[in-house]
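Deliverable D2.4 — example input (C-alpha cells):
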C-alpha cells in the first residue's frame, strides 16, 4: 500500500546527505575506539560524531551487502522485501522505498556509487552507479540513460567527485535533496589509492586475541565455514601476489582483477610498492610455519583494508568541507553508515554473514544541526530497518504503517535518551547462501544475551555478552543458563511472530537440485514468452502434475484460456515465496491466479497449521502487489491418508479451516474439493488419489470441472 506524502513547510524539510560504505567494521572507526583507533584514525567520521550523535548499538538485520541495502530502502526485513541473498537475490524495484516517497514529497533525489541490487534504481531523479560490485581502479559507471562510462582514477575519489558535481549543478535548488553517496570501499579486494600504498608500512598492526580461534565451545557449523584468513584467502585477489606460491597455502582461483584494469603507469607504481615485499615473502615461504603465513596474510589484509578506509575518511572530509563552504551545512542532515560490520581477523575470519558481534554491528553516525545534541552517544538498540522511517519523518512524510522499522526521531530529538517504549531486542536472519559456507541461522540479541538458531540441524547457541564479549562459549546447554535460555527462546518466538517470519515465510530456493534449477530457469523463460497468460497456476507437485496425469484435462480446460503452469514438485510455501520474488513474475498480468500450496509444509516437517497458514498468507500478500488486478482462487489442501483419523489428514483439515478465513469473496476465493475425494465415512477415494497424495487422471478431471465452474463464475471463459 502506498502512503501519500504529507505537505510540510520547506523550512521543516532538511536536506539529507547519506554517505554509505560497504563492510566498514566499527573496529576501523576511531570514534568507536578499538585496536586501530590511534594507529589508523578516521578524523572526519570522528568530526561527525563530535558534532552529532554516534550510535553504539546499531545492528543490521542480515549481514550481507544486497539484503542490507534492500532493508535500508524499504524499512523491511529481508523476508519481507524479498532480497535475502546476494547470489540469487534480486531487488524488486517496483516496491515502495523511502527515496520514492521522498521524491513524491518534492525532494530531488540522487544516488551515486555502489548500488548492488541488480535492477536499475527507481525513485531517483539522477543516478550513476557501479555495475555489480564495481571496481577500485578506473571504474565503470552506469548512467541514468543506461550507458556505461569508464572513469579514470580511484573509485572512492570518483564517487565523491560525482556527488559534489551533482550538488553543485542539480536541476532545482529550490527543492530539498536526498543524496546517497555510496562507496565500494572498504569491500574486498581492498585495493588502496596509490597515495596510500606505503601507509602503515613501518607498523606491525595489533592482532585480535581470537586470530587463531579453534572454534571449541561452539557448534560444528562455526568450524565448517570457509572464510578464514589462514585457508580461504586468494593469492591474487586478496593478497595481491603476482603468482601462485608453490606450497599450497594460498588459493589461486582469482587473480588480481584490479591490476588488469591499470594503465602501464599505474601498474608500474603498484609493482614498485608491492613487489619488494612480495619477493621477500616468496623467498621466505618454504621455511615459514602455518602460523607465520597466517600472520603475514593478516598484516597484508589489514593494512590494505585500513588504507581503503583512509580514502573513505578523506572523501567524507571533502563532502563536509563543501557543505560548510556552500552554506548547506546548517540545512543538511549528514548520516554516515555502512551495510554491516566486518571481521578484521576476529575468530580468524574476514567477511561477514554471521550473527557474531563484529558483523552484526554497523556504524551509524548522524549530524543534524540544531536538532541533534553534539557528542551524544545513544545506547538505544537500532537496526537498518529504522533508516527509512527516520528519513521519512525527518522530511515530514507519513511513515507507512507496515514498515517494520521505527523512526529514530524520538532518540535524535531527545538528546540521545532511549524512549521508555523502545525495543529491548533486535532480530537477525541469514539465508545460508553458498558463499563462504556460513550456515543459515537467525536469532535475537538483547543488551546482554544473544541467541542463534540453526534450522538445518535444530541447534542453538546462547552467549552471555557481559561475561563472554568475544562469544567463545555457547552456554545454551549450561544448567546455570536454563532460565535465560528458555526466556530467550520465548523472546525469539515473539520477534518472529512480530515480524511475520517463520520457516514457512522465509524465502528459500532449491537451486542446488539440478532438476529444480533447470525447471526454474525454463519457467522463467516461459514467463517471458507467455506474458499474456490469463491464468497462472501456482503450487507444488500436484500443480506440476497438470503436465503429467492431468495433461488431457489441462489441454481441454485451461490451455485455451492461455494458462501457465508454475508448479514445482516438493515445494513448500517458502519455496514459492522465493520463486515469486525472483522469477520475473512482474512481467505477467493475469486475470486469475490459482494457488495450491502447503501440503508439503504439513507433510515434510508436519508444521503446525498456523505456521503453514502464515506462509500462504505471505504468498497472498506478495500476489496482491505483484498482480494487483488478479483474482486469486485458493484451492483447499487435498485430503491425505486413507481415513479421517490420519494425522496428516487432520493437519490439512486445520489448514483448510484457516483458509476459509483468508478468502474474502472479493479478491480471494476458496474452492474446497475435500468432499469430492472422500466417501461419506471420510475414506479416501484411491481411484482419484492413488498414493493418497497425488491425483490420477480422473482426479485432475474432477479438479478441472470444479475449477472451470469457478473461473466461469469469475468471468473467465
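Example output (designed residues):
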Amino acid at each position: 500500500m502506498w502512503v501519500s506524502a504529507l505537505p510540510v513547510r520547506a523550512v521543516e524539510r532538511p536536506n539529507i546527505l547519506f554517505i554509505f560504505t560497504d563492510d566498514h567494521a566499527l573496529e576501523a572507526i576511531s570514534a568507536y575506539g578499538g585496536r586501530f583507533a590511534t594507529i589508523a584514525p578516521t578524523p572526519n567520521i570522528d568530526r561527525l560524531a563530535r558534532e552529532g550523535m554516534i550510535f553504539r548499538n546499531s545492528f543490521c538485520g542480515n549481514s550481507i551487502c544486497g539484503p542490507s541495502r534492500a532493508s535500508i530502502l524499504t524499512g523491511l526485513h529481508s523476508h519481507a522485501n524479498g532480497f535475502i541473498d546476494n547470489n540469487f537475490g534480486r531487488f524488486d524495484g517496483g516496491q515502495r522505498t523511502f527515496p520514492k516517497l521522498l521524491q513524491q514529497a518534492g525532494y530531488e533525489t540522487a544516488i551515486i556509487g555502489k548500488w548492488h541490487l541488480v535492477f536499475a534504481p527507481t525513485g531517483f531523479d539522477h543516478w550513476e552507479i557501479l555495475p555489480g560490485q564495481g571496481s577500485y581502479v578506473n571504474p565503470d559507471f552506469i548512467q541514468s540513460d543506461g550507458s556505461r562510462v569508464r572513469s579514470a582514477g580511484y573509485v572512492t575519489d570518483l564517487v565523491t567527485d560525482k556527488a559534489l558535481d551533482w550538488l553543485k549543478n542539480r536541476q532545482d535548488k529550490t527543492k530539498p535533496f536526498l543524496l546517497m553517496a555510496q562507496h565500494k570501499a572498504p569491500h574486498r579486494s581492498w585495493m588502496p589509492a596509490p597515495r596510500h600504498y606505503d601507509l602503515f608500512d613501518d607498523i606491525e598492526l595489533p592482532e585480535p586475541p581470537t586470530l587463531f580461534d579453534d572454534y571449541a565451545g561452539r557448534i560444528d557449523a562455526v568450524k565448517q565455514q570457509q572464510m578464514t584468513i589462514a585457508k580461504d584467502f586468494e593469492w591474487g585477489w586478496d593478497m595481491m601476489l603476482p603468482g601462485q606460491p608453490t606450497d599450497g597455502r594460498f588459493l589461486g582461483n582469482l587473480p588480481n582483477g584490479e591490476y588488469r584494469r591499470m594503465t602501464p603507469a599505474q601498474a608500474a607504481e603498484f609493482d614498485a610498492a608491492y613487489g619488494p615485499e612480495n619477493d621477500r615473502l616468496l623467498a621466505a615461504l618454504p621455511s615459514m610455519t602455518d602460523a607465520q603465513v597466517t600472520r603475514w596474510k593478516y598484516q597484508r589484509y589489514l593494512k590494505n583494508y585500513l588504507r581503503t578506509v583512509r580514502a573513505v575518511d578523506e572523501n567524507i572530509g571533502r563532502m563536509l568541507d563543501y557543505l560548510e563552504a556552500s552554506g548547506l551545512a546548517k540545512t543538511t542532515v549528514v548520516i554516515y553508515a555502512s551495510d554491516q560490520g566486518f571481521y578484521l581477523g576476529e575468530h580468524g575470519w574476514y567477511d561477514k554473514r554471521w550473527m557474531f558481534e563484529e558483523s552484526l554491528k554497523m556504524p551509524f553516525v548522524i549530524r543534524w544541526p540544531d536538532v541533534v545534541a553534539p557528542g551524544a552517544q545513544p545506547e538505544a538498540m537500532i537496526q537498518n530497518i529504522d533508516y527509512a522511517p527516520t528519513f521519512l519523518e525527518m522530511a515530514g512524510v507519513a511513515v507507512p504503517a507496515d514498515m517494520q522499522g521505527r523512526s529514530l526521531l524520538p532518540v535524535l530529538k531527545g538528546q540521545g535518551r532511549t524512549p521508555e517504549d523502545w525495543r529491548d531486542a533486535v532480530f537477525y536472519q541469514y539465508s545460508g547462501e553458498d558463499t563462504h559456507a556460513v550456515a543459515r541461522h537467525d536469532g535475537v540479541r538483547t543488551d546482554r544475551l544473544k541467541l542463534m538458531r540453526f534450522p538445518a540441524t535444530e541447534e542453538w547457541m546462547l552467549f552471555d555478552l557481559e561475561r563472554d564479549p568475544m562469544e567463545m562459549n555457547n552456554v545454551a546447554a549450561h544448567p546455570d543458563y536454563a532460565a535465560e535460555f528458555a526466556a530467550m527462546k520465548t523472546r525469539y518466538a515473539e520477534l518472529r511472530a512480530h515480524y511475520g517470519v517463520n520457516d514457512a515465510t522465509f524465502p528459500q530456493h532449491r537451486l542446488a537440485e539440478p532438476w529444480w534449477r533447470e525447471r526454474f530457469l525454463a519457467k522463467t523463460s516461459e514467463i517471458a514468452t507467455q506474458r499474456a497468460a490469463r491464468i497462472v497456476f501456482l503450487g507444488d507437485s500436484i500443480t506440476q502434475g497438470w503436465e503429467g496425469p492431468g495433461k488431457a484435462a489441462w489441454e481441454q480446460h485451461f490451455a485455451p484460456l492461455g494458462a501457465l503452469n508454475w508448479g514445482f514438485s516438493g515445494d513448500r510455501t517458502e519455496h514459492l515465496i522465493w520463486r515469486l520474488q525472483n522469477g520475473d513474475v512482474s512481467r505477467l498480468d493475469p486475470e486469475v491466479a490459482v494457488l495450491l500450496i502447503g501440503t508439503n509444509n504439513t507433510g515434510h516437517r508436519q508444521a503446525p497449521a498456523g505456521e503453514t497458514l502464515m506462509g500462504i498468507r505471505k504468498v497472498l500478500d506478495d500476489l496482491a502487489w505483484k498482480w494487483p488486478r488478479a483474482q486469486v482462487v485458493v484451492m483447499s489442501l487435498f485430503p491425505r491418508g486413507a481415513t479421517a483419523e490420519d494425522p496428516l489428514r487432520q493437519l490439512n483439515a486445520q489448514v483448510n479451516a484457516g483458509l476459509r478465513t483468508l478468502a474474502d469473496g472479493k479478491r480471494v476465493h476458496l474452492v474446497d474439493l475435500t468432499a469430492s475425494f472422500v466417501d461419506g465415512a471420510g475414506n479416501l477415494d484411491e481411484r482419484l488419489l492413488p498414493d493418497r497424495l497425488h491425483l490420477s487422471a480422473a482426479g485432475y478431471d474432477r479438479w478441472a470441472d470444479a475449477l472451470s465452474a469457478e473461473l466461469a463464475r469469475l468471468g473467465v471463459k
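The chain has four domains: 10-190+315-423, 194-302, 440-498, 514-713.
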